[in-house]
Amino acid sequence: MSNSHLTLNFYRVIHEGLDSYTAELEQRLTDPSLTERQRSVLAGMQNVIDAIRIWHKRYLEATKEIKPAVHNRLLQVPFGPARDFHEAVQSLWFIFAFIRLCGNWPGIGRIDVLLGDYLKNDLLSDNAETRAKAYFADLSMLKEFLDTVHGGVVKRVGAEIDCEKIVYKYA
Predict the structure, then answer these.
(1) pLDDT tens digits for range 137-163
(2) Which of 44, 99, 100, 167 has the fewest CB atoms within 10 Å, measured from its CB?
(3) pLDDT value at position 111?
(4) Is the previous residue joined to 32 through a cis bond, with omega within 30 degrees of 0?
(5) How far apart (Å, rounded) are the C-alpha atoms in residues 89 and 78?
């Protein structure tokens, strides 16, 4: 059965990386006052992170030759903190996809809160012109896609769909 009505703490994964959870779990498991049930829950959390590591390794191997840009981003995320917009989106998408493969369809939450600072920093960086052109091209392609293929989804759903679709494109 799916726990479809949940929103995970993607913010922490993006900004701190999954390794921050691993360190916290290891520290918490040293607490002698934990009950057996508490230890079991923490061990289950570690098992999930271990499963993500296995899938991550497979994903790295699969993308090395065919998607080198994705491969390079995955060398940092989701275990380490994202350093730029592309890594932040990759981290978000990777964890979202993993949870989705586990049979859950979680909410993503506020894309602007999760990714806004990364996008702003990228657009204000030394590579701002190059990145802005890439983002503009993606927005144009997205608008064309939504207006034609889906019969004008933006008109029926609203502009907020743009950000989510762009996130999927960069993943």
Answers:
(1) 655 655 565 455 444 434 434 444 444
(2) 44
(3) 84
(4) no
(5) 10
Distance CA 24, CA 60 (A): 25
pLDDT less than 50: residues of the chain = 146, 149-171
Calpha distance 154→142 (Å, rounded): 10
Angle among Cα 12, 88, 148 to the nearest 5 degrees reads 125
- pLDDT at res. 24: 95
CB 127 within 8 A of CB 119: no
pLDDT at 147: 56
Give me the pLDDT at residue 86, please.
84
| Joined tokens for residue 93 | 């998408």
CA-CA distance, 118 to 69, in Å (whole number)?
18
The DSSP code sequence of 45-98 is HHHHHHHHHHHHHHHHHHHHHH-HHHHHHHTTTTTS---SHHHHHHHHHHHHHH
Exposure string of 55-92, with b = 16+ CB inside 10 Å and e = fewer, is ebeebeeebeeeeeebbebbebbbbebbebbbbbbbbb
**What percent of the chain has a predicted confidence (pLDDT) above 70?**
75
